[in-house]
Specification:
2 copies of one chain form a homodimer.
Chain A (H helix, E strand, L loop, with lengths): L3 E4 L20 E7 L2 E7 L4 E4 H4 L7 H20 L6 E2 L4 E3 L7 E6 L3 H7 L8 E5 L4 E2 L13 E2 L2 E7 L15 E8 L2 E2 L13 H4 L5 E2 L3 E4 L15
Parallel strand pairs in A: 1-7, 9-14
Antiparallel strand pairs in A: 1-11, 2-3, 2-6, 2-15, 3-4, 4-5, 7-8, 10-13, 11-12, 12-15
Bound molecules: magnesium ion (2 copies).
InterPro entries (chains A, B): FAH, Fumarylacetoacetase-like_C, Fumarylacetoacetase_C_sf
Pfam family, one (chains A, B): FAA_hydrolase
Protein name (chains A, B): FAHD2A
Chain lengths: 236, 236
Amino acid sequence: MRAVLLFKLTSLLSDSSCAYSVCRRKMHILQFSQAGRHSIGVRVDDTNIINLNDFSPDLPTDVCSALCLDHKKLLTEAARCLQSTSSRISVDDVTLHPPITNPGKIIGIGLNYKDHCEEVGKPLPTEPLVFSKFSSCVTGSGEIQIPSATKGLDYECELVVVISKEARNVKEADAMEHVFGYTVANDLTARDMVSATKNGGQFLLAKSMDNFCPLFSDIVTKDEIEDVHNLNISLK
Amino acid sequence: MRAVLLFKLTSLLSDSSCAYSVCRRKMHILQFSQAGRHSIGVRVDDTNIINLNDFSPDLPTDVCSALCLDHKKLLTEAARCLQSTSSRISVDDVTLHPPITNPGKIIGIGLNYKDHCEEVGKPLPTEPLVFSKFSSCVTGSGEIQIPSATKGLDYECELVVVISKEARNVKEADAMEHVFGYTVANDLTARDMVSATKNGGQFLLAKSMDNFCPLFSDIVTKDEIEDVHNLNISLK
Ligand SMILES: [Mg+2]
Ligand SMILES: [Mg+2]
C-alpha cells in the first residue's frame, strides 16, 4: 500500500476563494534534492529546511516510502529533528520537489465547490463524484509544458488530503485516523476534453495529462490545521 | 516512469471468445515467492521455472522495477537463464504472484469487443474510450473477496499489453517498440455501479474496487505472439 492523495471532499459547502500556500506552522514535510541527492526535508521557516535523512539515516529518502513504512516514525523523527541543532539549509540552495511522488492513487472529487457547480450550471451532487488522475501527473510548482492535445487548459486550486494508512469501509468518525496531512494542488483539466461525447464522458483523459497535478512543496501535518473546513487556499 | 498495463485496443473488431492462458512458448516472465523471498522467474515449461534473481543477482526482484531499469537486460538475462543449467523449481513448491505489481498505470479501453457492444446495445466507438483501474487492483489468479458495495459483479477476459518504455505522442508505426509483452486479465466490473446516474457516469469506482484486476501468472514477450489480433483468450 502506498500513500493516497485525495482532493478535498468537504469544500462542497464552502466557496473556492482559495492560497497555493496553506498558512505555515511548524510541521511541514517536503522533498528536495541537493547535489544530485534526493532527501526528505523538514521546514524550519520560510527560507530554511533541515535534511531529515541526515538526522535520521534509516528513514527512506522519499516521503511516500517513509509514510508507508511507518508514518508515525516519520512524524516523530521530524519533530525531534526540528528541536535539534541540525544544520539549517537555505531553500535557495536546493531544488524543491513535490512533497510526495508516486502516490498509490490520486482520488479526485468533482463538482466539490458550490460556486463551481453554479458556474457550470450543475446541481450540487448528493454524493461525491469520484475520478482519478494518474500518479505520474504529480509535479512541483513552476512552469509546465501544456500538452498539444488540448486548447482548453483550466486550472483550479484544491486542498489535498494525504492519506497514509490503508483503509477500507471506514466509518466517518474514524476517517481522520487515516489522514497524515494536507497540501495544495492545481487540479489542471483539459476542459475541451470533458463532455458527454468526449471519451464516453469519462474525465480521465482530461484530468490525467502529463504534469496535470502540480503540488505545493510542503505537506502540512493534520494537527497543524485547526479547522480544515475553514481554510483559504489560493493559486499564485 | 513505471511500466503500464494497457487493456487491448485492437480487439474492437474481433469477437471475445477468449484462454486465461495465452498459448505457452519459451519466454514467460513471472513473479513468485518461496520461503518468504520474492523473485522474478522465467518459465521453463508448464511445471517448472527458474529463479532469475539467483541467475542474475544484480536484477531487481520485481518485474516492474526490472522493466523500468532496463527491459532489454531483463530479456537478455531471461534468455541466458533459460539456456543455462540453472536449477529448475517446480511451480508446486512456490507461490505464484501476478507477473507485474504496482504498474505505473492501468489503462483500460471500454467497449472494445464488437459482441459486447451488441450485448449492451451501444454503437461501436469511433475512437478508444479510455478508463483506468488503480494499480492496487492488481492481484493474481484465484479466489477474491467480492466487495460488499456491489451486487452486480461482472467478469470479462482481456488481453493486457505490458508497456515498458516511456512514451508520448507515439506514431502508430512506432507503437510496438514500446510493448514488452502480453498477459491476460479478468477485467472485473461492478456492473450495478455503471450508469449515467452513478458516480456522474464515471467508470472509475465500478472498475477499481480491491482485487478488480486479476492477472494471469505469466507475461509473454511480444516476439512470442505472431499475430496479436488473432488470439483466443479465455477464463477458466
Ligand atoms: Mg477540481
Ligand atoms: Mg473489459
